[in-house]
């Protein structure tokens, strides 16, 4: 049975009291669920408070970005050591908003991926094409380049600790979801790239998440596809009801009724 991973990216939303309320509501809504991995990624300022509240729960903590150095004169940055210190098990890297607004390159993302692994933090590495690239029939080429360079120089033991997130940029925050078929087509392509590089057994163990306007009413069909192992959820993760419902609807039907 597939064990789905659902990650909430809270982006630049939530003060500390709001984050506390949100995580408490999420915890209450998902506490009976054991067949799904659930991660909340609050903004940096709320990590400490949320970390205390998710300890001993079935919700894990993640961050939305980090620097690749352990420490140093990098004003404004947060290091993997600091994320580990605050209790993060996951970190989102190479989100399209970071690529677009902060000019992050695949080479920089690759350094961050290696640094996260060094600190035993699971990197959730985002790839995905823009609308122009899709319309120019370049989606596969773009994703391959992001895959090759942002995940460069990782051996099988390292790649097994990575989560890949396919997030078509045109579907993020737009309400326009890729159809489950469109998403599966790219996910199976990414699985093929993993197969070619690491072999079938290793490739089969790597989680590939879909992200882009995931909602309670589209998650079920998305995760029913063989190569979609969960979701990276933005907008719908900052309201407890919709995030809880996404988690519940992602469960295999035989256990949905008990949660
Ligand atoms: C995201 O921020 O990673 C995302 C997928 O956002 P949304 O769900 O709002 O499209």
TrEMBL record:
Residue numbers annotated as active site: 95 (electrophile), 167 (proton acceptor)
Protein name: Triosephosphate isomerase
Subunit structure, interactors included: Homodimer.
Cellular component, GO, one term: cytosol
Biological process, per Gene Ontology: gluconeogenesis; glyceraldehyde-3-phosphate biosynthetic process; glycerol catabolic process; glycolytic process
Pfam families: TIM
Pathway per the UniProt entry: Carbohydrate degradation; glycolysis; D-glyceraldehyde 3-phosphate from glycerone phosphate: step 1/1; Carbohydrate biosynthesis; gluconeogenesis
Chain residues that bind substrate: 9-11, 173, 213, 234-235
Name of the coding gene: tpiA
Catalytic reaction annotation: D-glyceraldehyde 3-phosphate = dihydroxyacetone phosphate
Taxonomic lineage of the native organism: Bacteria, Pseudomonadati, Candidatus Omnitrophota, Candidatus Danuiimicrobium
Function description: Involved in the gluconeogenesis. Catalyzes stereospecifically the conversion of dihydroxyacetone phosphate (DHAP) to D-glyceraldehyde-3-phosphate (G3P).
Gene3D superfamilies given in the database record: Aldolase class I (3.20.20.70)
Superkingdom as given in the UniProt entry: Bacteria
GO molecular function: triose-phosphate isomerase activity
HAMAP family: TIM_B (MF_00147_B)
Source organism of the structure: Candidatus Danuiimicrobium aquiferis
Enzyme Commission (EC) number: 5.3.1.1
Subcellular location: Cytoplasm
UniProt keyword annotations, A-Z: Cytoplasm, Gluconeogenesis, Glycolysis, Isomerase
Family of this protein: Belongs to the triosephosphate isomerase family.
Enzyme class: isomerase
């Amino acid at each position: 049975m597939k064990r789905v991973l659902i990650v909430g990216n809270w982006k630049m939303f939530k003060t500390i009291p709001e984050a506390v309320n949100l995580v408490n509501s999420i915890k209450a809504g998902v506490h009976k669920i054991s067949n799904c991995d659930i991660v909340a990624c609050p903004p940096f300022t709320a990590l400490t408070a949320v970390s205390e509240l998710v300890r001993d729960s079935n919700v894990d903590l993640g961050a939305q970005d980090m620097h690749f150095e352990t420490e140093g004169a990098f004003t404004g940055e947060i290091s993997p050591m600091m994320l580990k210190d605050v209790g993060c098990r996951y970190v989102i890297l190479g989100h399209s908003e970071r690529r677009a607004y902060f000019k992050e390159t695949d080479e920089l993302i690759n350094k961050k991926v290696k640094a996260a692994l060094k600190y035993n933090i699971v990197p959730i590495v985002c790839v995905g094409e823009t609308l122009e690239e899709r319309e120019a029939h370049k989606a596969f080429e773009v994703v391959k380049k992001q895959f090759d360079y942002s995940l460069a120089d990782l051996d099988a033991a390292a790649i097994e600790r990575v989560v890949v997130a396919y997030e078509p940029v045109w579907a993020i925050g737009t309400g326009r979801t890729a159809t489950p078929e469109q998403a599966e087509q790219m996910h199976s392509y990414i699985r093929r790239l993993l197969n070619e590089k690491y072999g079938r057994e290793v490739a089969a163990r790597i989680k590939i998440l879909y992200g882009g306007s995931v909602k309670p009413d589209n998650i079920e069909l998305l995760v029913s596809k063989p190569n979609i192992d969960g979701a990276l959820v933005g907008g719908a993760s900052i309201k407890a009801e919709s995030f809880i419902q996404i988690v519940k609807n992602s469960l295999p039907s035989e256990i949905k009724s008990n949660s």
